Amino acid sequence: MNELKLTLINGAFTVEESQKIILDVVASKIQFHEKKKLSALIKNQTLDSFSDERIKNLKRSMDHIKSELSVLTAGSEVTIQCDIHIKINHPEA
Predict the structure, then answer these.
(1) 3-state secondary structure at position 93
(2) What pTM value is reported for the model?
(3) Domain residues for 30?
């Protein structure tokens, strides 16, 4: 198994910048699951309950982030550290 690490975000941002960065990343994940749901419906005529639940959780997270950041003053700084850890599992030969 190979392991990789990608530092996606690492820095300090204004409240507005941090909200945009975080919400764009989460929105991208929501869009991924929406496409996955649609694909399962079209190809297999099945519902993707995992994606449904994931979308709900991501939307709740977006609301929570918006709420937390909305109380910060304009001069506040938000530090964001986001690493992606990737594990590659090779199939048994």
Answers:
(1) coil
(2) 0.83
(3) 2-88
